[in-house]
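User: For my dataset I need records formatted as: sequence, then structure tokens, nothing else. Please produce one.
Assistant:
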Amino acid sequence: MKVYKFESSDKGQITYRDKKRYLWLASMVYPLVAVSGIGLYMATGSEWSFLAPLVFIYGVSTLFDAIFGVDENNPPEELVPQLEEDRYYRWLTYFTVPIHYAVLFALAIFVGTQSVSLLSVLALAITGGIYSGLGLVTAHELGHKKSRLERNLAKIVQAVPAYGHFCLEHNRGHHRDVATPEDPATSRMGESIYQFVRREIPGAFKRGWKLENDRLERTGKNVWSFDNEILQSYAITAVVQLALIASFGWIMVLFLAVHNFWAWWQLTSANYIEHYGLLRKKEASGRYERCQPYHSWNANHVFSNILLFHLERHSDHHAHPVRRYQCLRDFPDLPSLPTGYFGMFVAAYIPPLWYRIMDKRLMALPHVAGDLDNVNVQPGKLEALLARYPKQTEVSDTLFHQAEAVAA
């Protein structure tokens, strides 16, 4: 296993081995699980086989998170530049892009050429959508980087689930407005995921389009031109999906519509759990305080993180957006999810269960200190929440200083 070394004048030689170096291959091959149902069907002849990838993502992954636990290890800061320059980690993200296309084509060809029930077509479309949603995880990692190659690959992979505005809107909009009432991609305390999705999907598209329109206007270019980065990605989507419809007929319209929506739903699910109820304070200038690690919910669960390019170390990501996945850090006393993303998705789909798990965690955070004034609350829910969490007259100095320590 590769050893990174650094000679420090005050610490001597510092060495580091990334114990997850080869485990990150799982992030690259994980989308292939989507076609496992087809393999099982070919072996058994049972259409129940098409549910296998869904059982894996929501059941097995959550179980493995519990079995393998968490990893709070951080690379030494002195070695982060070396770790970031190790191109092995980049190549994993590069190779993941064609894998997402291969999975989409494999599922589409099967649906277009095999005689299976309508319910099986829907199961395959949902499966494909869930795993194409992982393409937005890949786009997320690539789209935050400065190189033209990585940004172009992000545009290409986000075209798989027909979400061409994602990287632009996420980088320029969500990261600017995160953990504020202005952000359609930040969920509020008391807001169910089913309320959130009606605000998040259209809100993200509108914000992304406005941001790109404003950028093009500043350069004297027309928004309806190929200089529009959103249209570039959607053009790829149009070519790919129209070709599939032309090749396999109208069954592809149903398949792709369900596939695309379920991929969007995966992004909605992630956005919902990542910042639930968290709020940045508005300063006297009218601007919001700088985003800190405690403005995102974090998870260190080993199994789901190695499947998602460390997406669950979301706190460090929002504080340092260009930091590469292998270098993301854990911090003490962060807002922490009780399990990995896939288990939390299931909880979010059952709102009473979600509120039972998360509301008390939210109110117990050091920087919240039981005070709803420090929480991003769903309009119309404040009175009911005040009945459960009466307004605090004082915030303890101890809790305040704990929050400040996390920020530092």
